[in-house]
Amino acid sequence: MRQIRAHWWKILGIAFVLYAIIGGLLMDAPRLAILNETIRNLYYHVTMWFAMMILMTASVVYSVRYLMTFNQDFDQKARIAAGIGIVFGLAGILTGSVWARFTWGVYWVNDPKLNGAAITLLIYLAYVILRNSLDEEQKRARLAAVYNIFAYVLLMVFLMILPRMTDSLHPGNGGNPAFSSYDLDHTMRLVFYPAIIGWTLIGVWMGQIRLRLENIEKQLQDDE
Amino acid sequence: MIGTELKTLLKKELVLEWRSKFALGGILLYVLSTIFVAYLSFVKVVDVKTWNALLWVIILFVSTNAVSKAFVQEDQSKLIYLYTLASPQGIILSKIIYHAILVWIVSMLSVGVYITLIGNVVQNMGLFLTAVSLGSIGLSSVLTLVSAIAAQSNNNVTLMSILSFPILLPLLITLIKLSGGAIDGLAWSVTSKYVIVLALLNVIVITLSYILFPYLWRD
């Protein structure tokens, strides 16, 4: 019983992701011209971005808490959350690229959403480089936290400004109807929302395993 | 209180800059050679969009170069001495103001040389120079904070660019839209929303720098 109480969210994550894979591929989806069956990629592509943004937000929250307490654990968590976020971002770009090939005919177009995604990855890859070019632990944590907060706020501004300045091929932008209007009987929502929660929980779990692994490695090093 | 401190710190920046005149000369020469490279490669830019984008890329590189030494020129012991004398807020504000002036002068010079060599396509010059001025403030404040971060690493030059370019994009895209409007001769009333966005971006960046800088210098 104690086990279930401690690990229920992992079970929930697995269940939701399995549901998103099985239900996403088998359940009824709206049949539309051009999109056809690729509309099912909604469950795997869009959810990556949700999971990534949730993880990046968690990373910034940890950075703020680090600057408030100077507790090294928060810095570790901020770094791990950003790292997993990058993995989700890369998965989002890959799934989106394949989808774009099928619906728009090319792997990459000049579109505000794509550019926003690319810039998010550029910022967080720069964050990783910054961390690796500093040797001293305290200093690295401090500088990385400051950059994380600074960049996150400007990124949010960018993601708000950009779509208003240029047209997008994405649904819900540039005169294209949003996905909610395709999904007339709400069948897609039944898979879409659980999929977001599922992928995010899997991301948190990945982060937790990473954290525990690092702590064990550190302990082993200290014992030697 | 912060007023007198700011004035003293600004004076210190100006005196230091004047003492190392060759560095200032270096930046000016950088402007000239960069624009000359653009001039010889393009000779004449007919396409208005390219004219605009090229100018902003030049301004971006010139200001990155100008600000990158913001925290490097003073060695570690001098910085520690400075930190015992002044408040972090005073230091970051004075650095931002000083570099805004520097970047503004350098950008104006770039515009002048660029127009002389490559040709003028701007129809609403007042609006265009407003865009350049607002851009100088935004560019210099982002770059000043980033240079405070990069200066503490052993990978300064690369870090300066990779850390600042992605976060400068909201600013640059708005600037290119606004200056594009000025080139097409649009009226102030049509483009006022971009001016407001730029002003807001500057306020956000300066506020963030003001809040975050104290965490950077505490060693």
Primary descriptors:
heterodimer, A: 224 residues, mainly alpha, 7 helices, 79% helix, globular, B: 219 residues
Question: Secondary-structure element order of chain B, as H and E?
Answer: HHHHHHHH
Classify the beta-strand content of chain B into a percent band: under 5%
What is the CA–CA distance across the termini of chain A? Answer: 37 Å
Shape field of chain A = globular
Domains of chain A, number: 1
Describe the structure.
The mean pLDDT of chain A is 82. Chain A is globular and about 60 Å long. Chain A has one domain. Chain A has 224 residues and is an all-alpha fold. Chain A is built from seven helices and no strands. The two termini of chain A are 37 Å apart. Chain B has 219 residues and is mostly helical. Chain B contains eight helices and no strands. The mean pLDDT of chain B is 87. The chains are: A mainly alpha (224), B mainly alpha (219). The A-B interface holds A 67, 119, 122-123, 125-126, 129-130, 133-135, 139, 142-143, 145-147, 149-151, 153-155, 157-158, 161-162, 165 and B 142, 145-146, 149, 152-155, 158-159, 162-163, 165-167, 169-170, 173-174, 177, 197, 201, 204-205, 208-209, 212, 215-216, 218-219.
Structure at a glance:
The complex is a heterodimer of chains A (about 220) and B (about 220). Chain A is mostly helical and about 220 residues long. In chain A, about 80% of the residues lie in helices and about 0% in strands.
Architecture blueprint of SSEs:
The complex is a heterodimer of chains A (224) and B (219).
Chain A: H1 2-26, H2 42-69, H3 72-103, H4 112-132, H5 137-165, H6 179-182, H7 187-223
Helix pairs in contact in A: 1-7, 2-3, 2-5, 2-7, 3-4, 3-5, 3-7, 4-5
Chain B: H1 2-19, H2 21-42, H3 48-67, H4 76-85, H5 88-118, H6 125-150, H7 156-183, H8 188-217
Helix pairs in contact in B: 1-5, 2-3, 2-5, 3-5, 3-6, 3-7, 5-6, 5-8, 6-7, 6-8, 7-8
